[in-house]
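Why does residue order matter? Because the sequence determines the fold. Keep that principle in mind as you read this record.
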Amino acid sequence: MISLMFTVMENECDRNKFLKIYEEYRSLMFYVAEDILKDHALAEDAVSESFIKIMHNLHKIDQIPCHKTKAFIVIIVKNTALNVYNKMRSEKSLETELEKTTDNIPQVSDEIINKESYKNIIDIINSLPDALRNVAVLSLLHGLKNKEIAEIMGISYDTTRKRTLRSRNAIKAIWLKQYSGR
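Structure:
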């Protein structure tokens, strides 16, 4: 994987930076991904996808061993692992629902509606700007408190509190605009 990414990067400085990031954070990234996915192979896929995202955002990383970079990388791998998890879960729920249906008449259960609503909320969260999306993911999906988010992201408690409020208001506004008429 690393050698393939090196062929894409033309700048020697970027290659060195990427290699240092890989060496510094690959174990942590795998731990985070496996903690979410509970599957070794899926965690490896999520980490690989995360490294591709990191490669495309390499310009956003100044210092490699620092809390800000660590938080940035953890957010990337968490988002990627959650996307893999949600995709896997929605595929499994579709298979389960198809198995439950005994005739050709489609049946809509509350469970499917709830899963659809959850998927819509995830889509809305993913559409938010980075600062709001990252806080929303850590707050709403991982249940972290503002103090914990502030520590992870390396921002003040007040900034975290404001972003959390803004992200919730944005999610609510988008939800009402897109899905209230359903």
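Residues 90 and 103 are 21 Å apart (CA to CA).
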